[in-house]
Amino acid sequence: MNQAGVNEKFKVSPFYVFFLVHSMQTGIGVLSFQRVLAKSAGTDGWISILLAGLIVHTFIWIIYKIFSMVPGDIISASIDAFGKWVGNFFSLLFVLYCFSSE
């Protein structure tokens, strides 16, 4: 496909994304989640926070790797990966999800 890449002013640096995700995980996991976590996991709750953080950062790294290989946005990446029909179907599901979660 012959599509232009994402405009530079709309790109977010990997460091900034790492900082935002880390800050949100710290805020939710450490500052507001203690009571629920202590009830269900006891004193081993910190392990689940670390594991969840590692999993989220791994997913973000995979997403950055995919978008560094495919020029464009998420819709063009899905079309590139799955073909025209299946990629457009997944893109439609993504758009419907975005509209339903408002």
Can you give a write-up of this model?
- The protein is mainly α.
- The protein has 2 domains: 11-69; 72-102, no CATH class.
- The chain is 75% helix and 0% strand.
- It has 5 helices and no strands.
- The protein has helices at 14-31, 34-41, 45-69, 74-82, 84-100.
- It is elongated and about 50 Å long.
Question: What descriptive keywords fit this protein?
Answer:
mainly alpha; 2 domains; 102 residues
**What fraction of residues sit in β-strands?**
under 5%
* Largest sheet geometry: none
- Secondary structure: helix percent: over 70%
- Counted by DSSP, the helix tally is 5
User: Number of folding domains?
Assistant: 2
Strand and helix layout:
Layout (H helix, E strand, L loop, with lengths): L13 H18 L2 H8 L3 H25 L4 H9 L1 H17 L2
Helix pairs in contact: 1-3, 4-5
